[in-house]
Amino acid sequence: MTFPPEAYLWFKTLHIVGVVVWFAGLFYLVRLFIYHVEAADLEPTVKKAFEEQYTLMERRLANIITTPGMILAVSMAVGLLITQPSWLNQAWMQAKLALVAGLIAYHIFCYRLMGQLNRGECSWSGRQLRALNELPTLFLVLVVMLVVFKNQFPTGAATWLIVGLVLFMAASIQFYARWRRLRLSRQLESPLNNG
Ligand code: HEM
């Protein structure tokens, strides 16, 4: 099959659009799972309404945004490889494909969690889900580094500094959110609030 010269750039444009949509969906989906799990602490009538709403939002997000984003990213990537098959012989591309396989496994695992949540069988806590939601960040940073640096993947001090900074930022966000939740629950328990 022969493609016009600009086809590669079109595939790449749509590939990047697909990747952005896919990741937006993955990040928001697990955030919804966290709210869904934490709705269990609400009063029974409110809890039921919230759980139904989260179930609906999760299904729509997964089926209308996240999965189509993945299909667009992967199908355009296939277009890129058909137009330039020599990429497949390069180490960075093989490493990237291994990471993408991990990302697709994560995507499928999210669907499994969604099914368990909808049936009220999910055993994951909000805290565990928050930690899980950091996993795609790691995939994202590594894959983007691979496509940018290719076979010159950096392993020097600057790389570890940047990776450390990204991890530090992710951990700080987690700690801040935890501190805010603790403060809120203490405020609610305070005698002043109980009259
Ligand atoms: C099926 C799996 C994938 C394959 C086969 C694939 C393949 C490719 C190829 C061949 C390019 C063009 C490289 C160039 O022209 O320099 C590319 C670009 C890119 N890919 Fe992927 N990709 C895949 C998945 C992903 C994922 C999951 C991400 C994000 C986490 C991603 C992010 C990017 C980015 C940001 C670019 C643009 C890089 C640039 O122009 O410098 N790709 N991809």
From TrEMBL:
Signal peptide: none annotated. The keyword Oxidoreductase applies. The keyword Phosphoprotein does not apply. The chain crosses the membrane at residues 14-34, 61-83, 95-114, 135-153, 159-177. GO terms for molecular function: metal ion binding; protoporphyrinogen oxidase activity. It is found in: Cell membrane. GO terms for cellular component: plasma membrane. Pfam families: UPF0093. Heme binds at residues 15, 96. GO terms for biological process: protoporphyrinogen IX biosynthetic process. Pathway: Porphyrin-containing compound metabolism; protoporphyrin-IX biosynthesis; protoporphyrin-IX from protoporphyrinogen-IX: step 1/1. Binds 1 heme b (iron(II)-protoporphyrin IX) group per subunit. It is a multi-pass membrane protein. Its cofactor is heme b. It catalyses: protoporphyrinogen IX + 3 A = protoporphyrin IX + 3 AH2. Belongs to the HemJ family. Catalyzes the oxidation of protoporphyrinogen IX to protoporphyrin IX. Homodimer. This is Protoporphyrinogen IX oxidase. It comes from Prochlorococcus marinus (strain MIT 9313). The lineage of its organism: Bacteria, Bacillati, Cyanobacteriota, Cyanophyceae, Synechococcales.
